[in-house]
Design goal:
302 residues; metalloprotease; five-stranded mixed β-sheet; Collagenase (Catalytic Domain); 8 helices; alpha/beta
Length: 302
């Protein structure tokens, strides 16, 4: 079974931006998502017939408190244990141990600046793998009963442990909760990332030449570490709360060289892992993003 993500995505975009996003009864968190920003739901990739990247779950991003900024000093490093939960519908989605390790390798390469970006200081190690054959969980959308049951059953460890759920990611490529979810009474079990298994290296041709190099995972883990989209708040001065990511009004699809949607200096950061570009276009986190992730780690996860 595969969802028609394009048709469903249009309906979700209309619903989310009709005034209900951010309502606690409906939206428990965000993949670092905007407060009812249509671009985060019905984005350029959707217009080209591609998948809807992420949902808006209503978790509103905030700048870090002044007291938390700069707490991570130069040379910051930490290793994050990854609990990888493989959910299947029969044999569908049954990623192999080798494919899981390849995904961990992608995280280590991208967060270490292996494609040309800043070395964030974060590394990842596979702590354990669980396997569950459960169709309700496999096709679950965010904030659904299926998501809640899956995470209540499988979530492992504390705030510093990354729980990765390999499913269809419902109608999306993935989603993740910002780290302050761990401070919400009764919601810490939701913490983690949900990623479409077909975005992992060597698993499928569904997203071939678009989202097939494992970097959807990099994007979602960026949210888990408190990064916002580079196009968050468009051309506004604070944008994504990171000074060295140029302002960007709209999410990117593909790899359009020279894209420039704001009057502020700098072309759109189409190569940044926190845009919506194709995996082949991604190359970097910036030093400012590394600082924000490390400071957020010390505040929420250490």
């Amino acid at each position: 079974m595969r969802w028609n993500r394009q048709v469903v995505g249009v309906a979700i975009a209309a619903m989310v931006c009709g005034g209900v996003a951010g309502a606690p009864s409906q939206a428990l968190g965000s993949s670092g998502t905007e407060q009812c920003d249509p671009a985060s739901v019905s984005n350029a990739a959707l217009a080209k017939g591609g998948p809807v990247r992420e949902p808006d779950l209503g978790q509103i991003a905030q700048d870090l408190p002044a007291s938390a900024k700069g707490q991570a000093k130069p040379g910051f490093t930490t290793t994050v244990p990854v609990y990888f939960h493989v959910i299947t519908d029969g044999s569908i989605g049954a990623v192999t141990t080798a494919q899981i390790q390849a995904q961990i390798d992608v995280l280590n390469n991208t967060f270490a600046g292996g494609e040309g970006g800043d070395n964030s200081g974060f590394s990842f190690t596979l702590a354990a793998v669980t396997r569950s054959d459960n169709a309700q969980w496999f096709y679950a959308n965010p904030t659904s009963l299926g998501e809640r049951r899956m995470k209540q059953a499988l979530h492992t460890g504390g705030p510093g442990d990354l729980n990765w759920y390999s499913t269809t990611a419902g109608d999306y490529l993935g989603w993740a909760y910002l780290p302050d979810i761990v401070t919400k009474p009764g919601q810490a079990y939701l913490d983690g990332v949900v990623v479409d298994w077909e975005s992992m290296l060597g698993t499928s041709t569904t997203y071939e030449d678009r989202y097939d190099q494992g970097e959807t995972g990099t994007h979602e883990v960026g949210h888990w570490l408190n990064l916002e989209h580079t196009f968050y708040r468009g051309c506004s001065a604070k944008g994504d709360f990171v000074a060295d990511t140029p302002a960007e009004k709209t999410p990117t699809s593909g790899c359009p060289a020279g894209k420039d949607t704001c009057k502020a200096p700098g072309l759109d950061p189409i190569h940044n892992y926190m845009d919506y570009s194709y995996d082949s276009c991604y190359t970097q986190f910036t030093p400012g993003q590394s600082q924000r992730m490390a400071d957020a780690w010390l505040l929420y996860r250490d």
